[in-house]
Amino acid sequence: xxGIASAATHAYRARGVPxxxxxxxxxxxxxxxxxxxxxxxFELAFKNKRLKGGDLLTARTGYPGTTCIVPPHYGSxxxxxxxITRPKPSSINxxxxxxxxxxxxxxxxxxxxxxxxxxxxxxxxxxxxxxIALPPLSEQAAISEALSDVDGLxxxxxxxxxxxxxxxxxxxxxxxxxxxxxxxxKGKWExxxxxxxxxxxPENLGTSTPRDLLFNYIxxxxxxxxxxxxxSQQVLRSAPLRARRNLRDGDxxxxxxxxxxxxxxxxxxxxxxxxxxxxxxxxRCRENATYPAFICSHFFGHEVNRQIEALLTGSNxxxxxSADVRALSMMxxxxxxxxxxxxxxxxxDADIAALESRRDKTRLLKQGMMQExxxxxxxxT
Length: 381
Fold this sequence. Notes:
Elements: H1 2-10, E1 12-13, E2 17-19, E3 25-26, E4 29-30, E5 36-38, H2 40-44, E6 56-58, E7 67-69, E8 83-85, H3 94-102, H4 104-113, H5 124-128, H6 137-175, E9 190-193, E10 198-200, E11 214-218, E12 223-224, E13 227-228, E14 232-235, E15 243-246, E16 252-255, E17 265-266, E18 274-277, E19 280-285, H7 292-298, H8 302-312, H9 322-327, E20 329-332, H10 335-373
Parallel strand pairs: 11-18
Antiparallel strand pairs: 1-5, 2-5, 3-4, 6-7, 6-8, 9-20, 10-19, 11-14, 12-13, 15-18, 16-17, 16-19
Helix pairs in contact: 6-10, 7-10
């Protein structure tokens, strides 16, 4: 197997016969966004690795045990590095088997039987030894159809969320540049240097700060594209050296380390003392001059990110500093129009968040259905 995989690696081409790897496997579906190909002549030497529609591919490594079904249009593809299962239609429904392997019961089995050191993996013998709860074929088909219907709803919600995000990006392109004006606003837009209209890093913990100060700390890894995913409680005497920037409601946190990842945040006040890492440049808007949510939105838009990308070009380490942030240029309308634009974009964010919440609840519903239907606790009529 090692020899085959090594040979396949050297046979990769820009086009030819599709070749699926462990990283192409998602639970229930193939991900062909990073698809590789092999030379047709090479493929002829390994006909036993040729796939058929309805085959199951199980990842050996990465997320070992994760399984998907090969769709009919990839029936002539190959896979050298994954486990291939060809269900017998007379005894088991392929979709049911795929759901079962990806279920909590199936994945728990893999967790108990994984082999290897730092990189866990599963092999064909492990997969063959998996115990499976099998109802009659007709019930397998009914269970598969019920779960597939829920997957269809999840997929539809994913597509709608992507569409809404694209619409928001298009709206940002128009609204943040003044190309499209909101009704009732006619004031002049002006290009401003950011440092001329906001204050940066206005408050920092000084040497006189009590060493027993308890605070909530936001590190760079706690922020994900406008969302605060986590934070930690710290005492100054033992806190990270980067924990120095005091925060107030409405401060905008701009990640200066790998800013292309857009780990920026509009901070909203919560109980307690809040401090963030010096890996952020903290922007504090000036009263009746700059609106926090409007300024923050610019850092997710094209114009400001184009300037940031220019600063990073040729740099060995992708970072900027607070001086770079102050030097950024952006188009600013009067304060009232900034607030109105920010509200429009906020409403779009709320719409997306509601859809994401609905999708996440549907995923939980599916997990509950799998627990009931794939174990026989609940039977379909």
